[in-house]
Amino acid sequence: MSQIKVISLDAEGTLVTPDFSHNVWHEAIPALYAQRYEIELSQAKEVVTAEYDKIGDRRLEWYDINYWFRCFELGSPEAVIQSCQNKLRYYPEVREVLSCLAARYRLVVSSGTPEELLQPQLEGISSYFVRVFSSTSHYRQLKSPDFYLYVCQAMNVEPKEVVHVGDNWQFDFVNSREVGILAFHLDRSGNSHESLVDLKQLKPYLLV
Fold it and tell me: Would you kindly state where each structural domain of the chain is located, as residue ranges?
């Protein structure tokens, strides 16, 4: 592993628990929708979720909080994002592992989360990272193989000099590996024997 220069990490599901994101999308937005249209919260949740499902996670709009606020005519998302920040949680091993890795490698975040949500998610650990890349905000695409090439170019490294870790099999593992990055899939459920169950399991591959 002596050739590795950059460690790239996904954000949500890898560094940050889903609590903040879930609260934004499935609690705060429906609550605002219910208030706006004077309906019950349970009905608002059904309506909002149905609209999310119509778009699906293979389209950029699904990730774009400004798109949804325009779609639902809810105004600006800033207050909702701020109201949910008390739900931010990092996985238990994150700070320890980042501190260890940052002493030897350049760390970056490579995420599909839009910048409006990514910045608050990383606020408590931002000092560990030299760059943060949002595929949806900075490159207007999902986490495709091309996105990972853009990250390599921005960091002035070859794909073989990069490790990427994330919890989405297609977006994090398959697509980054396709361009020559050393990829690790993270499955915190422990259901896959081929995947890491937490970030501590990455250390033996890099720090020997």
Answer: 6-17+90-206, 19-86
Contact present, 18 and 59 (Cβ < 8 Å): no
Q: What is the pLDDT of residues 73-128, one digit of tens each?
A: 999 999 999 999 999 999 999 999 999 999 999 999 999 999 999 999 999 999 99
Alpha carbons 172 and 186: distance in angstroms, whole number? 9
pLDDT digits (tens, 9 = 90+) for 176-203: 999 999 999 999 998 877 899 999 999 8
Count of CA atoms in the C-beta half-sphere (13 A) of 156: 1
Can you read off the two tokens belonging to residue 184?
């690790």
| Cβ contacts of 120 within 8 Å, gap of 6 or more | 20, 81, 82, 85, 88
6-17+90-206 has which CATH code?
Answer: 3.40.50.1000
Quote the tokens at residue 66: 């400004």
